[in-house]
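Appendix C reproduces, verbatim, an entry submitted by the partner laboratory led by Prof. M.T., so that reviewers can inspect both the input and the predicted structure.
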Amino acid sequence: MAARLPEWTVSRIDERTASWTGELRPYNTTYSVRLELNVPPVIEYRSLVYLQPLVEVVAPRLRRLPGNPEGSLPHVYWSHPRTSRPGPFLCVFDPDAREWTLSDPLSTTTVPYTLHWLQSYEGWLATGRWLGLGRHPGQERTGEPDYKRERGPGTDPSRHSLDRGSSLATPSATLAV
């Protein structure tokens, strides 16, 4: 993270958990985002939801659209098995599609996927429709292809079929530094 996003600050929470805080600006709004990663002491069976980084928007507070058919705030977890803090936590990975592993760098997966989530969120606020990739938590998987990777976990990040770090880093969607 430090090499790719030196502006982000890191904090050690305990011997196995760290958090990074930085800013992302998909279109019109700059968001302060917090990523928290916990590395388990041994390889043990845990759900991928448990292992994946917690992603939170610290500021500004995410707006809800009550009565929206996709939910008042789609693609979030309101609670998480790893923390007693209340959500929302962003759903940036589909755990059933195995879009993330502990060996994936946060700077080339979690941060660009969070930027994509924020782009989808701003579009949803404007249109009332979630046009981003993925599925809502709890929604049944429909068999769509794994759109984020060409190959399995641990492959070279430059081989991603949708390298969000580069394809989204356009004048209208950039990492705010």
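Confidence is low (pLDDT under 50) at residues 142-177. Additional entries are available on request from the coordinating office.
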